[in-house]
Give the backbone structure.
Amino acid sequence: MPGLAVWTACSLLLFTFGSLALKEKIKIKPQKLSRGWGDRITWVQTYEEGLSTMMETKKPLMVIHHKDDCPFSQALKKVFETDKSIQRMAKEDFVMLNLVHETTDENLAPDGHYVPRILFVDPSMKVRADIIGRYSNRYYTYEPADISYLVKNMRKAKILLREEL
């Protein structure tokens, strides 16, 4: 019987060291807050942090609702990430938040819980219902072909903010 105990102990050690070696090989990279929407942009982690930062900086908050497994979100993300004017404005003129989970604030879903949707919030904490996309059935959605429309709406959000401050 001592042979069986030694064999069991050796097997257990091999399994343990083999598992550790496998874990060392497969490193899981921590996900960046950008989630692919622009690594040079400073992103806030939560809606609450976004509201707080917006109040401090007096910049509008841009909230992007998306899903990692949604092909429409992924297509918009690619165009958003490569558009230089959007990336510049997002970096310089907005507090940026992208969410893959819904918030409990129903103001961020004025016409439903769909993705992708992009909303603007001003420093008075008002969701800008007057800054909408092109579609009558989903006011806050944008498609890759609508990127120039999104740029226009970002500029509109900046102008409205300056007029109201």
Q: What stands out?
A: The domain at 47-164 is CATH 3.40.30.10 (Glutaredoxin). Residues 5 and 63 are 60 Å apart (CA to CA).
